[in-house]
Design a protein that fits this description.
The protein is an alpha/beta fold. The chain has two domains: 238 residues, TIM Barrel (Alpha-Beta Barrel), CATH 3.20.20.100; 58 residues, no CATH class. The protein is built from eight helices and nine strands. The longest helix is centred in the C-terminal third of the chain and has 17 residues.
């Protein structure tokens, strides 16, 4: 028997971990689980929702197939997303030790300060009167949000903390100094930013380099076959500076679907997301793109126009 045993084969390609970026050597799954639908508070808002049992089943399925990389936010599902993940990770997922991090934390949880801070996560809480302190990039909002997220996630630290969006009130110095302090305190390991212009990202990282602060190592932004602005400045910047990329809205908010699927939703009353766009039905351009994807799906022999599950095989 060899002294060094090789690692077991992962159950699926979700377990073929990769280095996040040249600036962040943590190993993560190639596909990140977005957790905006985990939680039970946004169903009436046209955003979808999952009860606790369904949320745990989804977390289990992702974890059992090798996944270890999640993205949530402080305000998702009015805070129930983080709460469900914290409860599920502590009770259900920790029973599977093969993927537990040395720290004892089963998942690399990217908690978005759109979740951690920036977005007002008390916006619909009628018991909170002074809501202004729960929003923005400023240090007070940052502190309140991170402390709340740590409690909800039932963890002592967050692997990746994103600035979810730039609030245009807080300066680069305050943001980067505040985020660096969280890293020094051990409450956050890596920093990211979402939906922010490339020039601000570059300015922030240059400030961090010049003053010995922690850098942003990952950029998150909307990117799909119909939304290509991510390619104009963000991707070239990431290539030049060794940054990771975390696309969101890759399925165009569910608007990439077949005519048959749209008719099924119309007949059943399921419809689609209406929180951002009150029109759940596809536009002319979205229908055109969906039909093109359906043609490609037929050519490669898959039923879905948005996913080929064979790519997740062992």
């Amino acid at each position: 028997m060899a002294f060094w045993q090789g690692p077991p084969l992962p159950p699926t390609k979700l377990g073929h971990y990769r280095t996040l970026s040249p600036l962040a050597s943590i190993h993560v799954s190639p596909l990140q689980l977005g957790a905006m639908s985990i939680g039970d508070k946004w169903g009436a808002l046209g955003m979808g929702a999952m009860d606790k049992e369904s949320s745990f089943n989804l977390l289990d399925a992702y974890f059992d197939n090798g996944g270890n990389f999640m993205d949530t936010a402080n305000n998702y599902q009015d805070e129930s997303s983080e709460s469900f993940i914290g409860e599920g990770s502590g009770i259900s997922l920790s029973l599977r030790p093969r993927s537990i991090h040395p720290s004892g934390h089963p998942l690399c949880t990217a908690t978005d300060p759109n979740s951690q801070y920036t977005t007002n996560f008390k916006d619909r809480n009628k018991d909170v009167a002074n809501k202004i302190t729960y929003v923005g990039n400023n240090i007070k909002s940052m502190h309140i949000s991170v402390e709340a997220s740590l409690k909800k996630l039932r963890t002592t630290y967050i692997d990746i903390l994103y600035v979810h969006w730039w609030d245009w009130d807080t300066g680069v110095k305050e943001v980067m100094d505040g985020l660096h302090n969280l890293v020094v305190q051990g409450k956050v390991l890596y920093l990211g930013v979402s939906d922010t212009p490339a020039w601000i990202f570059s300015q922030a990282n240059q400030y961090a380099i010049d003053h010995g602060k922690s850098l942003f190592v990952i950029d998150e932004g909307a990117w799909n076959v119909m939304e290509r602005s991510f390619e104009r400045e963000i991707i070239p910047m990431a290539r030049a500076h060794g940054l990771a990329l975390a696309p969101w809205n890759v399925l165009a908010s569910g608007k990439l679907r077949t005519d048959a699927e749209e008719e099924r939703r119309r007949q059943t009353g399921e419809k689609g997301r209406t929180l951002v766009d009150p029109m759940w039905e596809r536009t002319k351009d979205q229908k055109k793109m969906s039909r093109a994807l359906e043609k490609v799906a037929g050519e490669v022999g898959t039923k879905s126009i948005t996913a080929d599950t064979s790519c997740l095989g062992p």
